[in-house]
Amino acid sequence: MIDERAHRRIGTEVVDGLRGFAILWVVAFHVAIFAGPAPAWAASFAATGYLGVEAFFVLSGFCLFSQLRLSGLAKMRAALERKAA
Fold first, then answer.
1. pTM for this structure?
2. Which conformational region is residue 72 in: left (phi greater than 0), alpha (psi within -120 to 50 degrees), or beta?
3. Cβ–Cβ < 8 Å for 63, 15
4. What pLDDT, in 10s, does the model give residues 16-43?
5. How many domains does the chain have?
6. What is the rounded distance in angstroms from the CA atom of residue 70 to the CA atom of residue 68?
7. Burial class of residue 39 in the structure, from the number of CB atoms within 10 Å of its CB (0-12 exposed, 13-18 middle, 19+ buried)
8. Sequence-ordered list of residues with C-beta below 8 angstroms from that of 62, at least 6 positions apart, any chain
């Protein structure tokens, strides 16, 4: 049987991997802008680089609020104050 904490950790690792992919998506967009002509598949992928920024922010928000939910509502205010500082 899978431990509940281990299951949550695996889910977090998957989301972190998706965040990494979103970062690479944005980097590919910027490389395509400055590198000049690219193959058609790379140009069509890089043309949507702004979606990588949106994906990164959505996934980061998911990670933040998942951690807040796991730590309990009593600690939510302190965590948000730490993030704001």
1. 0.61
2. left
3. yes
4. 889 999 888 888 778 777 777 766 766 6
5. 1
6. 5
7. exposed
8. 15
